[in-house]
Amino acid sequence: MSTTTVYVAAGSNVAPLENLRRALDVLDHDFAPVTVSRAYANAAVGFEGDDFINLVVGFQTDLNVHQVIERLHAAETACGRERLAPKWAPRAMDLDILLFGDTVCAGPGLTLPRPDLLKRAYMLGPAAEIAPDTVHPIERRTLRELWRDLQATQAAHAMRPVELAWKPARGDKA
Asked: Which residues are catalytic, by number?
């Protein structure tokens, strides 16, 4: 069975440091070793609310995309996320697949690569940090190049680094 490299955006604005560490513990348990970007605080998008703290995590898996989504939903639930919560509202945890290898698909409930990756600094910046040479399967450009262009063409969504203080339980490199 072949492995797929997956990049996932993680964000929270409800006890965000605690919930991000909890989500990373679950992801590390399910997908170790994981690679984790720095965490960044930024203003909520789409509604008035507390700042979000966001990061990107990468890992390899032999699971299919739907099995990975099931694991992400379990991690969100472990952080107190309610599945039927409104889309534009505070979140205990939001885990979204940005890239699933070279998979390109568009359908109900799943579009890959995630379209927001090219528009949201809090997704693209951390993804480019941990996977600068990864090629976007539609754009055919590296995440480093896409990040550089996003920063140059618009006022990047203000992000400030935040100390997460998370270490993998297994002692794997983060």
From this structure: 81, 91, 94, 96
Distance CA 6, CA 117 (A): 13
Total of domains in the chain? 1
Measured CA to CA, the distance from residue 11 to residue 162 in angstroms comes to 13
Asked if residue 174 is part of any domain, the answer here is no
pTM of the model: 0.92
CA angle, 39 as apex, 121 and 59 as ends, to 5°? 90
Cα distance between residue 73 and residue 77, in whole Å: 6
- Count Cβ atoms within 10 A of the Cβ of residue 15 and give its class: 0-12 exposed, 13-18 middle, 19 or more buried: middle
In a domain, 172, yes or no: no
11: phi then psi, degrees, rounded to nearest 5: -150, 150
Cα(44)–Cα(89) distance, rounded to whole angstroms?
A: 9
Q: Could you count the other beta carbons within 10 Å of the beta carbon of residue 97?
A: 20
How confident is the model over 85-103, as pLDDT tens digits?
666 678 899 999 999 999 9
CATH number (domain holding residue 142): 3.30.70.560
Which amino acid makes up residue 52? F
